Amino acid sequence: MLLGGNHFGLSPKKGRRGSSAGQNLHLSAPTIAHFLWNSSGSDTQMRRLGGNAATVQRSTMKSLLLLLLSLLTVPPRSSGSDSAVVRGFKGGWLEFSSRYPDLSYNYTLIKVNEAALKSFNQWETFSNLRLYHDTERKEVKVGIKGPSWSSRRYKIKFYPEKPSKRDDDHDDDDDDDDDDDDDDNKYKSYKRTVDVELAAVAAAAAVATVAAVAAAVAVAAAAVAAAATVAAVAAAVAAAAVAAAATVAAAATVAAVAAAVAAAAVAAAATVAAATVAVAAVAAVAAVAAAVAAAAVAAAVAAAATTAATVAVAAVAAAAVAAAATVAAAAVAAAATVAVATVAAAATVAVATVAAAALLLL
């Protein structure tokens, strides 16, 4: 991520002849925290999952971050003409860039501490450093692997050509006596030393890490809340389905009970009809028997005047008629008893069916 406009003042370090032999570059804590914060990507995640609550949480964390950083700020001692730009913080690498000290020169060698970069337009890794000589933008990009960047100072030197052995020796003796002034003057237009002070970066990174963790916690909380909402909706749907199933089951039970009652009523009606037919048949038989008996009595009475024997026969016939009437009456009584018993049994079955259905509904 390129954070344009994050420039840092360079404090001049006077040389032995009063010229600017080097520059001190200060990267202050608020600016480091700024690109750490914007590199975390937590703002997008919070907007996706958290809504208004996430915005409030992010605002609170940002206020806390700014409050803490106000105590960690290390302002530059003075301002200068050059600048450096923080490029980003990815995978534990702090990246910044430093432009050529003189844009009219094309530098073939750039040293950062003990690392010597001779290649162009490609990254090279040196232990805890990685360097990129950008000839198009006329700058060097420096990547510092954490946590080593929290406690060291880094010197950047630019050479227009590969220095001789004497030049290398001279680089290690920048602060010697004035006897080396001629050599210093020889190279002062071609190289520059920049001290990159990153003492406040560790604290700023720690604060930014806390903020990122808090943002992640907020995102996780929002995700948990969303999952809980989904679970509640699923539970409500399941409850509605159970209630609907219970309603359907109750309706089916009522229908079954109604069908059973109707069947019992039909059976009772059939039984009553059968009993009625039986009673009618018995009555018809009794009527036939009574007619036969009456005819016999009439015959006996007619013959009674003739002989005594005929009288005896009439008496026997009368007895037969009485017996037939008794049998007919008994048959009618038996048929009525059977019909009543059948109707009572049908009613009992219907009542038992209704009671069982009521128990099922409860």
Can you walk through the features of this model?
This protein is an alpha+beta fold and 362 residues long. The chain has a domain at 82-162: Immunoglobulin-like (Sandwich), CATH 2.60.40. Helices cover 58% and strands 17% of the residues. The protein has 7 helices and 11 strands. The strands form 2 sheets. The chain has a 6-stranded mixed β-sheet, with no helix packed on it. The protein is rod-shaped and about 170 Å long. Keywords: Membrane, Transmembrane, Transmembrane helix. Residues 160-187 are annotated as: Disordered. Residues 169-184 have a biased composition (Acidic residues). The chain crosses the membrane at residues 196-218, 224-246, 253-275, 281-304, 311-332, 338-361.
Main sheet record:
6 strands, mixed
Task: List the helices and strands in order.
Answer: EEHHHEEEEEEEEHHEHH
Mean pLDDT: 65
Q: Low-confidence parts, pLDDT < 50 over ≥5 residues? A: 1-24, 70-83
Radius of gyration (Å): 58 Å
Approximately how much beta-strand content do the residues carry? Answer: 15-25%
Derived from helix and strand composition plus strand pairing, the structural class reads alpha+beta
The CATH architecture classification of the domain at 82-162 is Sandwich
Write down the overall geometry: rod-shaped
Number of helices: 7
What name does the CATH topology of the domain at 82-162 carry?
A: Immunoglobulin-like
Give the N-terminus to C-terminus distance in angstroms.
Answer: 70 Å
**Percentage of helical residues?**
55-70%
Largest sheet strand order: 1-2-11-10-5-6
Tell me the number of strands: 11
CATH classification class of the domain at 82-162:
Mainly Beta
